[in-house]
Amino acid sequence: MSSTRIEVAKSGISFGSALAIAISWSVNQSVLWAILHGIFGWFYVIYYMIVR
């Protein structure tokens, strides 16, 4: 059961980063911003949803 939770957390973190990078690229078209937003992951996705 514990290993399942870890795998879900890893998938969620990587999906959040990929989503943040995609949103950042579509808005800014800057590799540096996309990398920065990818690091913050879900935080940027939630911020984007609130602001837009």
Which short descriptors sum up this protein?
52 residues, mainly alpha, 3 helices, 0% strand
Outline of this structure?
By secondary structure, the chain is mainly alpha-helical. Helix content is 90%, strand content 0%. It has one domain.
The helix-and-strand class reads: mainly alpha
Mean pLDDT: 84
> What is the radius of gyration computed over CA atoms, rounded to a whole number of angstroms?
12 Å
The fraction of residues assigned to DSSP E strands is under 5%
Number of strands: 0
- Provide the number of structural domains: 1
Major sheet attributes? none
Distance between the termini: 38 Å
**Uncertain residue ranges:** none
**What is the general shape?**
globular
**Helicity range:** over 70%
Order of helices and strands: HHH
Number of helices: 3
